[in-house]
């Protein structure tokens, strides 16, 4: 399929696909006339990239998942390098949740004090 069809099927733009390509995540073949040609594997890769970006991964985090798919796995999450990234990302999220919980508790305390001081 050509880049326009891949973009349409993946729900993204051709510009985004070229951006992923520039980062080595998407790999087109070139036809004799120089057009980018993609196979079904690239559609799976783009879906994986978009899903991971949507939950906060950056392009470097995504590399092991793409490599896992390219190795023939049905999911990018099953390879050891992907599991390491998932564990690291989960730890980062846990830290954020703890920070947010501390902020929430402080705000609740300030609100309670403010309400208690009202006449």
From TrEMBL:
Coiled-coil ranges (or none): none
Gene Ontology MF: a single term: DNA-binding transcription factor activity
Superkingdom of this protein's organism: Bacteria
Keywords associated with the record: DNA-binding, Transcription, Transcription regulation
Domain HTH merR-type: 1-68
SUPFAM superfamilies for this protein: Putative DNA-binding domain
Transmembrane parts of this sequence: none
UniProt name for this protein: Transcriptional regulator, MerR family
Lineage: Bacteria, Bacillati, Actinomycetota, Actinomycetes, Frankiales
């Amino acid at each position: 399929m050509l880049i326009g069809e891949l973009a349409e099927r993946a729900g993204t733009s051709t510009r985004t696909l070229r951006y992923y390509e520039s980062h080595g995540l998407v790999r087109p073949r070139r036809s004799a006339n120089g057009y980018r040609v993609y196979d079904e594997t690239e559609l799976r890769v783009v879906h994986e990239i978009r899903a991971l970006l949507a939950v906060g991964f950056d392009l470097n985090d995504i590399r092991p998942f793409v490599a896992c798919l390219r190795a023939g796995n049905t999911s990018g999450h099953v390879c050891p390098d992907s599991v390491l990234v998932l564990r690291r990302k989960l730890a980062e999220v846990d830290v954020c949740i703890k920070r947010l919980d501390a902020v929430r508790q402080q705000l609740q305390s300030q609100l309670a004090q403010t309400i208690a001081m009202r006449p």
